[in-house]
histidine kinase (Qipengyuania benthica), 569 residues
Amino acid sequence: MHFDDRLATVLRHRATGERAARTQFRQLLDLLGGPAGGRDASLEAAAYLRLDALGALIPFRERARIVECDGVRIRNARLVAWLAEAEPDVAAAALAQARLSEEEWTQAIPELPIRARGFLRNRRNLPAGAIAILDRLGVSDRGLPLPERASLAEPAPPPSAQIADAPAEPSTAGTSSGDDSGIAALVRRIEAFNKARETGPSAGAGAAAPQLPLDREPRAGARRRSELFTFTADVDGKIDWADPPIAPMVVGTDLVRGQDRSAPGPQNAFASAFFNRQPLREAPVELAGADRIAGTWLVDATPRFTRTDGRFYGYVGRFRRPADISAQEQAESEADRIRQLLHELRTPVNAIQGFAEVIQQQLFGATPHEYRALAAAIAGDSARMLAGFDELDRLVRLEGGVLDLEPGSSDFGAILRKQIEQLQTVLSSRVARLEFDCKATTAVLALEQQDAEMLAWRLLATIAATTGAGERIALELRQEDDQLSLRSAIPATLAASKDPFSTQTRPSGGALSPGIFGAGFSLRLARAEARAAGGELAQEADRLVLTLPLLTGAAVPPSRVDAPDSATG
């Protein structure tokens, strides 16, 4: 059996000078540039650490020249990702030299820095899958289109009507290739332009000056607005690099000047994130200047930190124009992003919960009781987190209009009595009480039983969890035309807040809880459920009022009406 010990041999030697550093840097690129299969993982990790150290000794332009050498072959996706994090010159050279398979490109491109993706726009030999990924990520300006070729079998079209009256001039020596040549057409336009300038006003007031064929489309007085460009900002928040066509107009722009980091509002999003070294997602920024860049932009950017000591040295990201979409489409887009985020959060929590249950149930062998107790606590915490994710997902889908409650039939009065009776057993220890008075002759809703129970429990459990010791909360259910209304006094804890729907109140402990996100969130979710059912949950003076439409058009049995002193206890 043969072992490839070249990587260990290179790492065994120390680079004692600049020349030796360049040589070893090139050697490590050669060895790491090949397919990663069969290499020792620890040696490979040591090699990347050595490359970091050598990079600090070699100027970035020299490193870029080493990467650009014809002898350097980069066929390792991990090396491509590592080089893409380097300075722009090095990253551009590496992405130009990289030779990956289509599958490797499709996996690597989404993980590349935003700036590095832009360097790929000049590649002409990317596989179709990589091009599709770049298009989805917004990197669609990959180089200039090929010029249109005139057919040699047909004569070139005549000059524009603007110079139709200009006299024909003999062709110069440089146009001997024939009238169909693009050069010949250019020369004719130059000659016509010079003659029109010499004749001056005699050309007539309505005559337009001939234009050179640099742009096939007429100009409307202003350059076309840019829709997307990448940038980097320094430690002071000033743009220090941008895409070449945009750079003269934006380099030096101070993105945080005069901004108060504590000031609220979306317009201060960049300044707030900058001072806190946080990534940005669709932060609105106003740029002033030329028509091409003036106006509102959305910024997606991420902070940059040095590899050696973790120092902050600016931002890298992109500016893009806001999409002209409707409010409904924007809400659906936001809801989709939140659902994707929740999906990504559920995956690790599910894994943690599964491992905790394995330990707690001793599926892989005997486990000390202390560890089993810890595992049970972790499993319980994971379950609460997953329940919170489910509530977030439900709220997002309800508010985004992508979730409808199931239609059906349910007796809301019976549901309330049963749940209040369950809650009263817990409230008794606090000498507190929910006093329920049902005055409705019918309380049948056009809502499926499970959805009706979930809505009722969310509201009642939140009220009960925030009810203080010795407090009595009056609840009244009555019928108003074709609506059913439940009026509840607001517990003192919630009444202390100006808006119960935005309060962050969380009980200190106990068997009752309004949920992992607090009472305000639970009330907002109950309000969203009520609205999805065609009703409303709102605050009226010192009461919370839930209104829901009654089931009509069918004979339904009346709800059982208890005696006036029907407070459960």
